[in-house]
Design goal:
This protein is an alpha+beta fold and 980 residues long.
């Protein structure tokens, strides 16, 4: 270890990278899921005004039991709930107990004839004083006063509902037994201290409308002992600190919650946990995320194994002479293996200590990843060390320990004589060349890819659109095997290419060039081939990871842009004749009118009445902050398209609610009523072509020709229509005339101008009422507006570059516009990029890329350092033969270009091919059979620039290190007597 300390250091770095990467899987997954859980629970709380971390139980007591039995029943109930909550092991934020008697009345108040006596509920709640603020009077004092009065507090709403007053002593009794009574006095009026306090998760006014509160222990003890107060209901609630929840044992937590629900039901205890459904959903999502992270690590793990094997092999090659000496002097193979096993064991122990903490640090950095090698100022992930992370690191060390020991085993069977003889023998072809491993790997990968694609196509054709369950780990192994196969094929043929070049130009090559070509051409089994394969693997995987990340992020951004169609979409309520008539008969608020409008619009297609709308002033939208362009877009679902030439299957037009007969199931005819066939499953969009072209966002690759060509056709021929490609299957062709109708409007004719698969804002996978997919049609807004009555349209915006979305929102409020709906593409993109699945993949790909590039740099330096050191004698001979020092440097540069340069260039090409073939398989992870636009691999220059920058740093570092190393070598002294 001392003689090759820098090689051992490289092994240690490899071990640490391996264990750190493995330990990031549980750490990063748990942190991502926890952040996802917190966000969704916060959204749940905002939407439903319920604290999602509530653990609520209640118990109703029998009315015919004594006071001591009531106290015992409450105690047993509280003990059961406490025990069950502790079983879950969830972090506790607060613990609240509540008891009440709902059958009390005020006996001391005079009641007029015919009016009921004042009824109220007496309640006791633990720790209430810490969560309320006294608005009038003071807080009650626990226990019974010297004058026999129990002090209470109440809310203003409770005082109004019970008609009680503060600072007044009341005599109260049980409505079922008024022989006994006690006295109470309301000494204070209170309100909640913090409206967001989880203590009041169930709501104060809604749950405790007529409750007068006293001390919990006083009520359960002294008040119950009097026989006047009888506990009718007990409540025991916990608030879970969901921000501190540990996601590592989610499956068992969900299982225990289900068992507790059954247990509480058997014991007549009410139970609810709002977060239980969310936790169930997260159990399945965590499994999917863990699978994806594992799959993404497969190429990196294989690469690390290759790296460790390479470094261990080079280490053994350096010490093969010493190993042979040990063998010749009587050391057994087991003893020699033990020496190197002890060395690896020391490295392994250090790695188990360092690796998990290195992984923890990586997770903190990767939590801010917004894309591939892109980081934003985001709140750091709630990462923490777990036993699982240490276990992952230990398993990684064990696997890589075996990897480093493999090259040592064959070296231990060679004596010093055999070792010297082997150096003089001609090297034989490697085993992988004899068995044609390169052809096997490439052919097997391509064959599996073909089979997998055909299987996926078959599933989609059979209607299985959710293909996430078919994610196959082999897809990641196959991509790495494909790269390895092409790399092996390259190093198989490359020596022959170099020999050919050397022979062709042997009359023109300079001495430095000729020696470089000769060295590389003769090293058909040497280190140069091993380095080329290593560079091909690392750089190709780097390109593959970069293209994978870019495809994933591009797909997320493009799907949002396609769905929204532009930067922002707004709809507002329009004043209509129906609203006016409703206001004349029954006045209603604006929100009621808005809901009425929505209901009216949904029922329009079932009525023949036409509603007259008043269009708001459109120019208001053009003056909003940050707006560059704006346009009108009218959309309508359920529009009927009909034509004599259309042959729409009956199931497309027959209502699901209509009762079917036996003949309907056997009938194969088409609907030809009135001499036409029609479909009502159509999404209609009408646009102003000139304005729409300025506002919409669309990928040109989705259409045969650029979008503006279609818009020009629609602008030049206004009674035209662009239909979805599904209409082709109905028998329509270009130039055909179809009729369009909806609601109480008269039908009108349009001419088919084009068929398209995609259009901004119109999904070809939108489900119809009959379970199929809806067709779509795009028409000219002005033409349709003349043919039909005006209806509310959408307003599409294009914002200026760098415009603030918040300022845009603020300007909407300042303009007095009250939108019914408002969608922002940028906000939805941010939400989509915050999805733990996408964040996890970005982080894993970034981590994998960094680790691969670090290994590439280290491996590159190892090779060239060993190469220079082992060729000192050769340099001396060449100098003695008259070669200048500058020519020796140029010889090394030529070798760099011929070995490293060619390998890197080939790796970029191989990585691109691998990306085109295997990256589209990632769509199965996201159920992309319905993803619009389709999953596409489009390399981006910035990603390659990042890769080139890393390679440039690697080469520059290598030249600096090698330059310093060559300067230290005393070439003139290399020729010594006895040098071999």
């Amino acid at each position: 270890m001392r003689n090759t300390k820098w090689m051992v250091l490289c092994l240690l770095i490899g071990f640490v990278m391996a264990s750190a990467m493995m330990s990031t899987i549980p750490i990063y997954m748990n942190a991502s899921l926890q952040r996802m859980l917190v966000k969704d629970l916060e959204s749940f709380q905002t939407e439903y005004e319920i604290y999602p971390g509530s653990y609520n139980t209640s118990y109703g007591l029998k009315m015919d039991i004594s006071g001591s039995e009531q106290q015992k029943a409450v105690e047993n109930y509280n003990n059961k709930v406490e025990a069950k909550f502790k079983e879950l092991g969830l972090p506790e934020k607060l613990d609240k107990k509540y008891i009440s008697d709902e059958y009390l009345y005020v006996r001391s108040l005079a009641v007029s004839e015919g009016n009921p006596q004042a009824r109220f509920t007496l309640g006791g709640m633990t720790d209430i004083s810490d969560h309320i603020s006294i608005k009038q009077g003071r807080m009650f004092t626990a226990g019974k006063r010297s004058d026999g009065v129990y002090e209470c507090v109440a809310t203003e709403k409770a005082l109004k509902s019970t008609e009680l007053a503060i600072d007044t002593v009341y005599e109260i009794a049980d409505v079922f037994d008024d022989n006994k009574s006690i006295k109470i006095e309301i000494v204070g009026v209170f309100d909640v201290k913090d409206e967001n306090d989880a203590y009041w998760a169930e709501g104060l006014d809604s749950q405790y409308t007529a409750v007068v509160f006293t001390d919990y222990d006083t009520m359960l003890g002294d008040c119950v002992d009097t026989g006047v107060v009888n506990i009718t209901k007990a409540v025991h609630n916990y608030a879970v600190d969901y921000a501190s929840m540990n996601m590592t044992d989610l499956a068992s937590t969900n299982e225990m919650i289900a068992k507790q629900k059954t247990y509480f039901g058997e014991n007549s205890i009410g139970f609810s946990m709002p977060a239980s459904d969310i936790l169930k959903d997260y159990e399945s999502r965590s499994s999917q995320l863990q699978l994806v992270l594992w799959l993404l690590q497969i190429p990196v793990i294989l690469m690390i194994i290759f790296y460790l094997f390479m470094v261990s092999q080079l280490n053994v090659e350096q010490e093969r002479n010493e190993i042979a000496v040990f063998k010749s002097r009587g050391a057994s193979r087991l003893q020699i293996m033990g020496i190197y096993a002890l060395e690896s064991l020391v490295l392994g122990v250090l790695t188990v200590i360092i690796g998990p903490f290195a992984g923890l640090g990586l997770c903190k950095v990767l939590g801010a990843s917004n894309g591939f090698l892109e980081f934003v100022n985001r709140r750091s992930l709630p990462v923490h060390m777990t036993i699982e992370a240490v276990a992952y690191a230990a398993i990684a060390v064990a696997v890589f320990f075996v990897t480093t020991m493999i090259p040592i085993f064959p070296a231990t069977k060679t004596t010093i004589v055999e070792h010297k003889q082997s150096k003089a023998k001609k090297k034989k072809h490697a085993l992988w060349e004899k068995v044609c491993l390169d052809f096997i790997l490439v052919g097997g990968s391509v064959g599996w890819l073909y089979y997998y694609n055909k299987t996926q196509e078959k599933l989609v054709a059979e209607g299985v659109t959710d293909t996430t369950a078919t994610v196959n780990p082999i897809m990641f192994v196959a991509s790495t095997a494909f790269i390895l196969g092409l790399g092996l094929f390259l190093i198989r043929i490359y020596p022959y290419i170099i020999r050919l070049l050397a022979r062709i130009g042997r009359r023109v090559w300079s001495p430095a060039q000729y020696v470089s070509l000769t060295n590389i051409g003769r090293s058909s089994t040497g280190r140069e081939r091993f380095l080329m394969l290593f560079l091909v693997l690392t750089v190709s995987l780097g390109v593959f990871f970069a293209n994978t990340a870019r495809a994933l992020n591009r797909n997320a951004e493009e799907s949002v842009a396609y769905e929204v169609g532009c930067d922002a979409v707004l709809t507002e309520q329009w004043y209509s004749s129906k609203i006016e008539s409703a206001q004349q008969s029954t006045p209603q608020s604006a929100s009621q009118a808005g809901s009425q409008q929505t209901a009216d619009e949904s029922d329009e297609e079932d009525t023949e009445t036409t509603i007259q709308y008043v269009e708001p002033v459109f120019e208001r939208f053009e003056k909003l902050a940050g707006v560059e362009d704006v346009t009108k877009v009218f959309r309508k679902d359920g529009v009927t398209i009909s034509s004599n030439k259309m042959n729409v299957p009956r199931q497309q037009t027959k209502s699901d609610d209509e009762e079917k007969t036996r003949d309907d199931f056997l009938d194969q005819s088409v609907d030809t009523s009135s001499g036409k066939s029609s479909t009502s499953n159509v999404q209609l969009m009408t646009i102003v072509p000139s304005d729409f072209s300025k506002v919409c966002k669309f990928e040109d690759r989705l259409l045969p020709v650029q979008l503006n060509n279609y818009l020009n056709a629609l602008a030049e021929y206004t009674p035209g229509v662009i239909l979805s490609s599904s209409f082709k299957s109905y028998g329509l062709e270009l130039g055909d005339t179809v009729e369009c109708k909806w609601g109480g409007n008269e039908s009108f004719e349009v001419t088919v101008l084009a068929f398209v698969d995609y259009w901004p804002g119109l999904s070809p996978y939108k489900e119809a009422k009959n379970g199929g997919y809806m067709d779509f049609a795009v028409m000219n807004y002005d033409y349709v507006n003349v043919q039909t009555s005006m209806e509310p349209y959408e307003v599409w915006f294009k914002l200026k570059d760098g415009a603030s979305v918040q300022e845009f929102y603020d300007s909407i409020d300042e303009a007095g516009i009250k939108p019914l709906t408002l969608e922002s593409a940028s906000q939805q993109t941010i939400e989509k990029k915050n999805d733990p699945m996408l964040q996890g993949m970005n982080g894993a790909l970034t981590l994998g890329f960094i680790i691969i590039m670090v290994m590439c740099i280290i491996g590159f330096l190892i090779y060239w350092i060993l190469s220079i050191k082992s060729r000192t004698l050769q340099f001396g001979i060449l100098r003695a033969m008259g070669m200048k020092f500058r020519e020796i440097i140029m010889m090394i540069v030529y070798e760099q270009l011929l070995v490293s340069g060619v390998a890197i260039f080939a790796a970029i090409f191989i990585g691109g091919i691998t990306s085109d073939l295997f990256v589209p398989l990632f769509q199965s992870i996201f159920d992309a059979s319905q993803s619009v636009p389709p999953f596409a691999v489009i390399p981006e220059r910035s990603d390659y620039l990042k890769l080139y920058a890393v390679i440039g740093v690697m080469l520059l570092t290598a030249f600096v290190v090698l330059g310093r190393l060559i300067k230290k070598i005393k070439i003139s002294q290399a020729l010594k007597l006895g040098e071999d």
